[in-house]
């Protein structure tokens, strides 16, 4: 046994990992700086498989990083900037303490800063990579843009976030990218489709902030710092792809229309442009003001099998096009109690025109008194003056329309009416799952069936229930009659001789039915011929399916019972 | 200048200018004439009566203050007007005036402003000094010279120096020092343009200016979870009854689990009822050592009775113990040397044993030939087992990808589910009260996806102990 004795923890996993503190010392950074650097560079801690080995025999809980990652960090130019900043703070403190005001001024002028552009490029080598990772960025920016400017984070960050989110929403409007909206108790979920990527984000309700104390604001601000850079570059690229001017500019025509003589009542000059942009009521200028070209689908000579698929796809495309223009030609007016920004965004995303009261926000284009308004969105039990030629509806209608992909009938959403439930569009039911009746109704509407029948049916059933008591007596009489008839028949049978000839019935040869029967027979035979093992599996699958069906039936029955119960309650209340 | 000069002239033209022997003076003074030397200026000032001049000057000043000049100089039109009696239109006009007044009441200046107004018609004296410039003459000359030079086209030295200075690229500097979160920062097409590095790559690399390529491994996400997890359908602001119930059930289950864990800990920490002190045990503890002797005596008596029988046994056991003790003592001494015979015998035994084992192995191997089938089945069984285990391990690993890892001192604690109870549900969007905090939700999501380690807020540690001192004033009262 020659050679040196191997020492413990000098090879293998013990050398592949490094604890956070050691990494920090290696980089000569303070812990907050180290944390910031890791977030910016996208380097995350790892959990080693064998903690005790990595931890050199100790079982103390520690945070580990991969050594290679930390070595990679050593090359980052920002590390130097962090050190510079540390020195800067020290110098500044000293100058303040000595009340050397000129020195303070000079130092402040030369404050070391850093750029994250190269990190964005490094982490996301292609545009599509970045687009895939945008959800976090959107959530964060939307969240920060709603913060009050109270010093929880830099006001500048809030302004930048606001600007970027407004740009993003304007892009979504122009490209008609919105697919789904879900109003939850947390906030509003939106889903857009950009370049084939489905992007979901969450927007908090306005004015709903209590600042939780157990959240590390510094960490969140660092994430936001990176994400603002990322989102800005993505916005630029997206605007370019639509031939829009970046930074966004309002259409000159629209700008003229929006010009108000008491503009400065709303906002400072510096902010008024952003405010106008965030009103979403006007379109943006394009680089090339050519008429919009409808993208034609390419045609290739294909096989017949593919032909069907192609047709299907074409049909889908057409449907989507129609969906995008859902609200075109409709004119909305938002009452002051509805969430303006969200509704304006959604309506504009589908081509509707929208306005609001002049005092609510900048950028209102027409007044409440406009005769051409088709839908007036209200969220209160009654309104003072009502116009005959418009619908007064609740805001949920707009969101439900988006999720149903059609313009729903307005009857269920009138002012003061109890609304149908707002279903989550993010739930996709598989075959055999329980589907709530509201969704079934919407699906029927999508297929183009008439919704009125169901309503009638319901009414009818109500009427029937009311009339039930009267019917009871009649039913008893009928039953008696039937029994009498049966008795008579039996007697007749007894009197007749047992053997008799009856006229034959011609068997109708139904090819479809026969085919079906044959198929069923084949299937049964195939099941019989199965191996024992396969049979076992097959039975299991079938059992699972049946169980699912049973469960759905149960739920449906429950729902029916619930509905009936509700109806009865309502009736009672009416009485 | 002009008014004062005129004033002098006017004063000079008045009769009795500076009469030293005024009658008033003499009248007031007693009949005895006071003798005053008139050859001294001091006495002139002291004993000449200038009241009339003062009065006169005061009168003039008053005239100037109130009318802006001497009344004597004014024309008759300025001083008099023709009284024609009351005009017939006057009534109407006054009404109008009144109306106007009423309207303009608010525009009338405040009385306090009127009081404070400068009401003299004599303009205030100019402060000549404030218009004067030190070195005015010199400066004027300097400026003139500069003008002349400029006309010739000569640039002065200071100007020349300024112009010759290298122009700083201020915009570039500003861009370099611009903060990252500047709301007006501009963006560009970062993915469109290729990096244009004209310098030698070797040079860049050696000087540390070239960016190191990012390892591919780093682009893997640490978790498969999506960035935004949409809330269950029961979390809608106006949910479907069943989905809402399902969500409530879920929240309920979580809560029950939590309660169970809590109660378990409580149970473990609870004091055992039997361990609790009763009156009896307390009493016993108190009398511990007091009653001992009697009891021991009793016990001893019982033991004696018992011991009568086993005495013999004990006697037998005792010598054995002694022997053992001797043995233990003997083990320390070196073992005695083995004899040659013993060694040989041992060796032979060893070889024999080895041979036996080898033969046995050989035999068993030969036997295995006949056990092939059973061996095969055993192998198959084992392989099956390992395959199943592998599968299980893989599934576990797959499931763990979606799980939060243990990245630090603390375990990941999921946030409480956001729910609204059935009676909290509102019928309209207007009345909706949002649940939970999105900031916290985002923070937890980052932790859940292993991007950051769960952490507790650093506790504030006081370096020195606080010292409370009663204030003096307060102490005086108490």
Automatic annotation (TrEMBL), chain A:
Start-end of Basic and acidic residues biased regions: 310-319, 482-492
Gene Ontology CC: one annotated term: PeBoW complex
Biological process terms in GO annotation: maturation of 5.8S rRNA from tricistronic rRNA transcript (SSU-rRNA, 5.8S rRNA, LSU-rRNA); maturation of LSU-rRNA from tricistronic rRNA transcript (SSU-rRNA, 5.8S rRNA, LSU-rRNA)
Molecular-function annotations in GO: ribonucleoprotein complex binding; RNA binding
Entry's localization field: Nucleus, Nucleolus; Nucleus, Nucleoplasm
Chief place of localization: nucleus
PROSITE patterns per UniProt: BRCT
Alphabetical keyword list: Coiled coil, Nucleus, Ribosome biogenesis, rRNA processing
Segments of this protein annotated with the region Disordered: 298-319, 447-519, 551-575
All copies of domain BRCT, residue ranges: 322-415
Source organism superkingdom: Eukaryota
Acidic residues: bias regions: 455-481
Quaternary structure (record): Component of the PeBoW complex, composed of BOP1, PES1 and WDR12. The complex is held together by BOP1, which interacts with PES1 via its N-terminal domain and with WDR12 via a high-affinity interaction between the seven-bladed beta-propeller domains of the 2 proteins. The PeBoW complex associates with the 66S pre-ribosome. The PeBoW complex also associates with DDX27, PES1 interacts directly with DDX27. Interacts with IRS1 and UBTF. May interact with MAP1B.
PANTHER family: PESCADILLO - RELATED, PESCADILLO HOMOLOG
Biological role: Component of the PeBoW complex, which is required for maturation of 28S and 5.8S ribosomal RNAs and formation of the 60S ribosome.
Stated family: Belongs to the pescadillo family.
Protein name: Pescadillo homolog
Organism: Hippocampus comes
High-level lineage: Eukaryota, Metazoa, Chordata, Craniata, Vertebrata
TrEMBL record, chain B:
Record flagged with keyword Nucleus: yes
Composition skew (Acidic residues), residue ranges: 290-316
Any Pfam family matching the protein: Nop53
Alphabetical GO biological process terms: ribosomal large subunit assembly; rRNA processing
Annotated localization: Nucleus, Nucleolus; Nucleus, Nucleoplasm
GO cellular component labels: nucleolus; nucleoplasm
One function term, GO molecular function aspect: 5S rRNA binding
UniProt-listed InterPro entries: Nop53/GLTSCR2
Keywords: Nucleus, Ribosome biogenesis
Span list, region Disordered: 22-48, 86-108, 289-324, 383-406
Family: Belongs to the NOP53 family.
Job description of the protein: May play a role in ribosome biogenesis.
Designated name of the protein: Ribosome biogenesis protein NOP53
């Amino acid at each position: 046994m020659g050679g040196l004795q191997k020492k413990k923890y000098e090879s293998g996993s013990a050398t592949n990992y490094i604890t956070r503190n050691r990494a920090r010392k290696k980089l000569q950074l303070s812990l907050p700086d180290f944390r910031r650097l890791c977030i910016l560079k996208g380097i995350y801690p790892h959990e080693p498989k064998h903690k005790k080995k990595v931890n050199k025999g100790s079982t103390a809980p520690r945070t580990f990083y991969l050594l290679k990652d930390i070595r990679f960090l050593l090359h980052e130019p920002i590390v130097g900037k962090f050190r510079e900043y540390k020195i800067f703070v020290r110098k500044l403190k000293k100058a303040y303490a000595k009340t050397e005001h000129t020195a303070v001024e000079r130092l402040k002028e030369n404050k070391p800063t850093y750029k994250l552009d190269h990190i964005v490029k490094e982490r996301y080598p292609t545009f599509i990579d970045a687009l895939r990772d945008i959800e976090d960025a959107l959530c964060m920016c939307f969240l920060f843009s709603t913060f009050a400017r109270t010093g929880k984070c830099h006001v500048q960050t809030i302004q930048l976030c606001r600007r970027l989110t407004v740009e993003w929403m304007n892009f979504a409007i122009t490209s008609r990218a919105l697919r789904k909206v879900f109003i939850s108790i947390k906030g509003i979920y939106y889903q857009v489709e950009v370049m084939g990527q489905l992007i979901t984000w969450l927007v908090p309700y306005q004015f709903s902030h209590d600042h939780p104390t157990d959240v590390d604001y510094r960490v969140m601000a660092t994430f936001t710092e990176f994400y603002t850079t990322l989102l800005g570059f993505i916005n630029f690229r997206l605007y370019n792809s639509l031939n829009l001017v970046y930074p966004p500019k309002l259409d000159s025509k629209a700008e003229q229309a929006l010009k108000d003589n008491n503009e400065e009542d709303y906002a400072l000059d510096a902010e008024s442009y952003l405010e106008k942009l965030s009103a979403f009521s006007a379109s943006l200028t394009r680089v090339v003001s050519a008429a919009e070209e409808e993208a034609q689908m390419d045609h290739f000579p294909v096989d017949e099998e593919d032909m069907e698929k192609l047709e299907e796809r074409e049909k889908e495309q057409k449907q989507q096009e129609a969906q995008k223009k859902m609200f075109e030609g409709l004119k909305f007016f938002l009452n002051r109690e509805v969430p303006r920004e969200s509704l304006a965004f959604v309506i504009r995303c589908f081509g509707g025109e929208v306005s609001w009261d002049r005092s609510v926000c900048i950028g209102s284009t027409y007044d409440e008194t406009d005769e051409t308004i088709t839908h007036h969105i209200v969220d209160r039990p009654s309104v003072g003056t009502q116009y005959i030629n418009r619908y007064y509806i609740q805001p949920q209608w707009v969101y439900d329309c988006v999720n149903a992909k059609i313009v729903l009938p307005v009857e269920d959403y009138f002012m003061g009416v109890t609304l149908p439930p707002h279903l989550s569009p993010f739930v996709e039911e598989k075959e055999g799952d329980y589907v709530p009746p509201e969704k079934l109704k919407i699906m029927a509407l999508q297929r183009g069936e008439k919704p009125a029948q169901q309503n009638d049916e319901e009414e009818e059933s109500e009427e029937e229930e009311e009339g039930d008591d009267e019917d009871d007596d009649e039913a008893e009489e009928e039953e008696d009659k039937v029994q009498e008839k049966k008795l008579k028949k039996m007697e007749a049978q007894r009197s007749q001789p047992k053997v008799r000839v009856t006229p034959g019935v011609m068997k109708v040869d139904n090819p479809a039915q026969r085919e079906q029967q044959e198929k069923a027979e084949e299937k049964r035979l195939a099941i019989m011929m199965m191996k024992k093992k396969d049979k076992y599996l097959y039975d299991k699958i079938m059992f699972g399916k049946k169980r699912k069906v049973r469960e759905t039936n149960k739920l449906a029955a429950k729902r029916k019972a619930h509905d009936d119960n509700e109806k009865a309650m309502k009736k009672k209340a009416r009485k | 200048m002009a008014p004062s000069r005129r004033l002098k002239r006017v004063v000079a033209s008045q009769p009795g200018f500076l009469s030293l022997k005024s009658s008033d003076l003499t009248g007031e003074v007693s009949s005895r004439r006071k003798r005053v030397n008139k050859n001294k200026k001091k006495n002139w000032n002291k004993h000449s009566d200038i009241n009339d001049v003062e009065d006169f000057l005061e009168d003039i000043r008053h005239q100037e203050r109130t009318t802006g000049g001497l009344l004597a100089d004014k024309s008759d039109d300025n001083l008099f007007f023709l009284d024609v009696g009351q005009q017939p239109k006057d009534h109407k006009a006054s009404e109008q005036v009144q109306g106007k007044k009423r309207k303009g009441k608010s525009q009338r200046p405040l009385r306090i402003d009127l009081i404070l107004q400068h009401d003299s018609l004599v303009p205030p004296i100019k402060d000549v000094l404030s218009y004067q410039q030190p070195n005015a003459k010199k400066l004027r000359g300097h400026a003139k010279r500069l003008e002349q030079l400029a006309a010739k086209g000569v640039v002065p030295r200071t100007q020349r120096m300024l112009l010759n200075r290298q122009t700083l690229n201020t915009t570039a500097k500003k861009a370099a020092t611009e903060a990252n979160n500047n709301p007006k920062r501009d963006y560009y097409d970062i993915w469109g343009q290729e990096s244009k590095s004209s310098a030698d790559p070797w040079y860049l690399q050696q000087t540390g200016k070239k960016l190191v390529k990012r390892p591919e491994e780093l682009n893997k996400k640490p978790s498969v979870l999506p960035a935004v997890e949409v809330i269950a359908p029961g979390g809608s602001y106006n949910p479907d009854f069943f989905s809402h119930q399902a969500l409530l059930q879920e929240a309920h289950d979580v809560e029950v689990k939590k309660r169970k864990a809590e109660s378990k800990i409580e149970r473990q920490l609870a004091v055992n009822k039997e361990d609790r002190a009763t009156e009896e045990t307390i009493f016993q503890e108190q009398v511990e050592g007091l009653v001992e002797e009697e009891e021991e005596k009793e016990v001893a008596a019982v033991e004696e009775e018992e011991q009568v029988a086993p005495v013999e046994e004990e006697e037998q056991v005792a010598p054995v113990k002694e022997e053992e003790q001797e043995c233990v003592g003997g083990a320390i001494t070196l073992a005695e040397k083995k004899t040659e015979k013993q060694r040989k015998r041992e060796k032979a035994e060893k070889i024999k044993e080895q041979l036996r084992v080898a033969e046995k192995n050989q035999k068993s191997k030969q036997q295995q030939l006949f056990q092939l089938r059973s061996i095969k089945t055993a192998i198959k069984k084992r392989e099956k087992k390992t395959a199943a285990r592998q599968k299980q391990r893989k599934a576990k690993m797959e499931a763990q990808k979606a799980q939060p890892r243990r990245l630090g001192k603390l375990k990941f604690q999921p946030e409480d589910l956001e729910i609204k109870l059935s009676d909290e549900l509102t019928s309209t969007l207007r009345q909706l009260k949002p649940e939970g905090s999105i900031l916290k939700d985002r923070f937890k999501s980052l932790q859940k996806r292993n991007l950051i380690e769960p952490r507790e807020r650093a506790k504030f540690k006081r370096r020195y102990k606080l010292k409370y001192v009663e204030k003096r004033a307060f102490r005086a009262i108490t």
